[in-house]
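Re: the 334-residue chain
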Amino acid sequence: MSVNPVFNRHIAIAQAALRHDWRLEEVQALYALPFNDLIFKAQSIHRAHFDPNEVQISSLLSIKTGSCSEDCGYCPQSARYDSGLTPEALMPVDAVLKAAQQAKDQGASRFCMGAAWRQPKDKDVERVIEMVQGVKALGMETCVTLGMLTDKQTQRLKEGGLDYYNHNLDTSEDYYSEVITTRTYQDRLDTLDRVREAGINVCCGGIVGMGESETDRAQLLIQLANMPKHPESVPVNMLVQVEGTPLMGTEALDPLVFVRTLAVARIMMPKSRVRLSAGRNKMSDEMQALCFLAGANSIFYGDKLLTTDNPMTNHDLALFNRLGIHSGGSSYAE
């Protein structure tokens, strides 16, 4: 069997050091690799940094649902769209902690709380901190997504013990205005800078299948990988089309393009947890197995992802058993 020395050299380089200087032509070249070569490269890098049969499990709860003033074209929680969603006020702390305990009992190690705000009020942040502290007392990692933050709010979350803050870029800067007009790309970057400067771990990824080009997908990954420090968690979402939202009816993305995107993310951010996120409810077991092979090593667990369906817990457990996967998690270090 012949061995391609250039191919092996690229793997060795990627394993040896983290990079923050990716160029578009390099990422496009990764996407263009034969599928088997790309998966081999991603899996080789994955094995250099993680147990290849371990997947970290997170559970996501919508703690405040709907009535959001943003116009994100994919989101049924926007007040601008008639998606049939019933708005719900911020949940009581005890109800959130009950859900967190249930998630822990089902195997989740991280509990993520999402609130449909453009930007929370200071009093809202204080209530969220109560939730964070309660969840941490259960022995779970904590993550919240609350929209844009001020410096003061970010510092309060850090003081309150928050482990991760999720704030996705969604897509490339060039395509962003096709999806969202009520918030700029720079707004998102500014929030991420505040989170990082406060010493909170960053959870940041995007959504594919929104009608973007391959170049847009590459540019999104470049934006993430060329940050001064890679996000500790990188959720990769497949668009979930919801009636009443502008992106309903978008042409479905080729599943293998989605797998390629996960593989490229793994190569570019070798020590990050790459999370297989929204859209799993429409994925076959075989497609999910390919995603794990491509380097995904985190999932959202449970029957809901904020407001959209997710595979049931028992189905996930059965799939893990079939694949020989076990749950777990390890700290990121760069």
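DSSP finds eleven helices and twelve strands in the chain.
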